[in-house]
Amino acid sequence: MCDPLTIAGAALSAGGIAANSIGASQAAAASSRAYAAEQARQAQLRQEAAQVQQHSNSLYEGFAGKQQDRAADLASTLRSAQLPAQGSASTTVEAPASSSNITTQGEASQRASADAYAGQQATALGDLRSFGDLLGTNALAQARDASQIGQIGNFMRGSASVLPQELNAASHAGDTAKLFGGLAGGLGKVGIAAGINGSTLGGLFGGGASSGGNVSTSLPTMAASGMGSIANAYGNLPAAPMSIAQPFGADPSFASSPYRV
């Protein structure tokens, strides 16, 4: 049967692993949300740019028909500035009293010819100017579309440049769970190690309880070791210092040497 410290340490280690897993899942989910939000923004901006591009392309669809309509508008504008022919509803030209019918008829004929010529010139000038007028109008519209597309491109680059900061913030989404996981894992390792070494919960935190009979409750002293005090330990030593010759007997004398002459 396992001791309580080992069981508690294993439980704390398992809790730490679970907390770290939850923290990692939270960080991954936050990063996924940041990626999804950025993809949605980029998709919306691309759609807006495509709509602007489609409008720019549609400016030249049916160009010939648009040119004819523009020519008719220009001819009508030019024609309205000219004097109407004699006999029309807007203007009545009275012939002099002394003039004959021939003179009146001749003047009316000349006015009709001039009016027809002016109409022909207005139509010709409208046809001539219609191409350049329509092309210039389309060019201005395309310039506005190009400016709008460039602005959308700046928005896309700006949004993409913010993504790294968003991902960095998302990576810290599970810091709280990871903190508790680290603490639980560390305490679990300590508990398992103490349980394997035979320690108890009280002994682990400084208590006097022991888990075995061979564990002493107090530290050994010098007196208990049989040595006594420091003075007693050195009490049996000789008071005078020993010489080098004492271990070998009496000191040799040169006078008693048989080699002395």
Account of the protein in words:
This protein is mainly α. It has a domain at 4-87 and 102-190. It contains six helices and no strands. It has helices spanning 4-58, 63-80, 101-171, 175-196, 201-204, 230-233. Helix 1 packs antiparallel against helix 4 and helix 2 (63-80) packs across helix 3 (101-171). The longest helix is centred in the middle third of the chain and has 71 residues, at 101-171. It is rod-shaped, with a radius of gyration of 57 Å. The relative contact order is 0.16. Residues 85-93 and 208-220 have low confidence and may be disordered.
Question: What sort of overall outline do the alpha carbons produce when their principal axes are compared?
Answer: rod-shaped
Task: Extract low-pLDDT stretches.
Answer: 85-93, 208-220
- In total, how many beta strands? 0
Q: Decide which structural class fits the backbone.
A: mainly alpha
Helix count, DSSP H or I runs of 4 or more residues = 6
Summarize model confidence as the mean pLDDT: 75
Helix-residue proportion: 55-70%
Gyration radius over CA: 57 Å
Query: Which percent range describes the beta-strand content?
Result: under 5%
Q: Can you summarize the main beta sheet?
A: none
User: H/E element string?
Assistant: HHHHHH
> How far is the first residue's CA from the last residue's CA?
92 Å
Secondary structure topology:
Elements: H1 4-58, H2 63-80, H3 101-171, H4 175-196, H5 201-204, H6 230-233
What is the structure about, briefly put?
The protein is mainly α and 261 residues long.
